[in-house]
Predict the structure.
Amino acid sequence: MSITIMELATFRLKREPTTMADFEEANLPMLGGCQACGATVAAYNSCPTKSGYIACVGCVPEHFGYETVEQANYAVFLYPAAREKLRNLLFAALKDFEPWVDDEDICVVVDKVNFSIKICD
Ligand SMILES: [Zn+2]
């Protein structure tokens, strides 16, 4: 059973969201569209998926939702923030050796399966 946007928002806010402002605070959409069938969905009947899109509860089984709010929070919010921090650290370190390196030239790809980090420029 995949967790819904509502459950993730409740976890992030530590209270049940009721208004649009609550969802904005949680950084999650109150309304959206299913990536698979295109249905208009609300927070209670849609799920974050591992593809990065939202799926309705009917489509989510084939689109890899998250089993726990902790997993979803990590993947959707904490992991991208950690990757950005890592990218900034790498950029600062590289800049000492290659002053011509541009911030836009660096991307960091973290392979969570093999635990390797690839820097592409
Ligand atoms: Zn759907």
User: Anything to note?
Assistant: DSSP finds three helices and six strands in the chain.
